Amino acid sequence: MASAGSGVVIAIDLLDQQWLSSLRERVAGTGLRIHPREETRTICRVPRHLREGDPVAYEPRIISFGPFCRDNPAVKPMEELKLRYVRRLLRRNPNAVLEDYVNLIRGLEVRLRACYSEDIAMDSHKFVEMMLLDGCFFVELLLMISSPEYEQEEEEKKDPVRTTPWALNLITSDMLMLENQIPFFIIDGVFKLATFRRSCPGSLTDLLLQFFDVLLPCERTSSPPPADRFYHVLHFVHSRIVHFESKQIAMVKPPAAPIYLELRQIRRWLSNIYGRGRVVSSARGFWPTRLRNEPSGSSPPTPESVPCATMLKEAGVKFRGKKAESFLEVAFRDDGTMEIPKLLLYDGTNSLFRNLIAFEQCFPEAGTHVATYAMFMDCLVDRQGGRGAAAPARVPNERAGERRGGGPALQPAVQGCCDRLRLVLSG
């Protein structure tokens, strides 16, 4: 018998006792359990709450890398071209035959499979072949584009990647999708095998910088970290944008996003001029009293608390562009000047930003740098009144898919994913 809180006596029969005992054991045995793949996974699916905002931004349009996107009908025609690229890569190092590449991948198969967040339902032969084609295509494309004699080869002149104006643009964009990745170490392994004791225009990271330079919205001059510090190519690009120092290990948690520090500067500057009557009522109303009197030890401000550019201008803030190694290096000066680095805008900007943000959401140790920047820029643009400031833009060349203009082009590139991130970043 058991007594309830109301004083009513409740009878517990044998079955109830067994059930209660089982329930007690399950509750007592509950604890934080880490999935076996949690420590090895580096490639995962895009979270549903992000994908729903724009599913197309996460789906490759012309080529697949790895198992997650290979069944997409849109990527099937490129499988034949991958075979041609394998043949061309084999010619680069006569001392390395097809069996050498197969043995390389077969020896890493267990490690490769463990990198994915899901079990890969492929037998060993199909899995190794997929990694062989994808890795060889990737490396051959890098070498081909970087070789001075590239356009002199007759076969290369007929390559559809070069003869079709939009093909290379789409391939480059597809390479930077979270679900469309292969582990970086297999790209590095294929690269070393293909270039062993052969002349090469640079290291793997050098070629990647050269290849993605036209699309990366930043101007980097420092050398990248070694190849063994990256999970995959999207991680490499994210690390370049976030501006990791070469001495850092790839996924050591980076410091707070630089924009957080500048938000404090903006708050401090605006709070000073409130007392001098230089702020119009619209900006004064946006900036709550609790933010003006924020204690020094409080948590970092969120980008959401930034007034739009028009309000900031009315408060006396001046905007100007700046040269920087990363578009994240927004700065707010003591004289009330906000400096915003130039940002490359092209047809793939939306997809690039979304996948970088998805990477940050899947790997918290990467920080929230790109997500914070996207929300910050979204706040500067007054969506309701259409009164945002034009953020400086860098006009890309024809490979990137030219889009002229300044800030207005940025708005659709970043604002679509911001609404779904606000609770995540401010929680």
TrEMBL record:
<dbReference type="Pfam" id="PF03140">
    <property type="entry name" value="DUF247"/>
</dbReference>
<feature type="region of interest" description="Disordered">
    <location>
        <begin position="387"/>
        <end position="408"/>
    </location>
</feature>
<dbReference type="InterPro" id="IPR004158">
    <property type="entry name" value="DUF247_pln"/>
</dbReference>
<feature type="compositionally biased region" description="Basic and acidic residues">
    <location>
        <begin position="396"/>
        <end position="405"/>
    </location>
</feature>
<protein>
    <submittedName>
        <fullName>UPF0481 protein-like</fullName>
    </submittedName>
</protein>
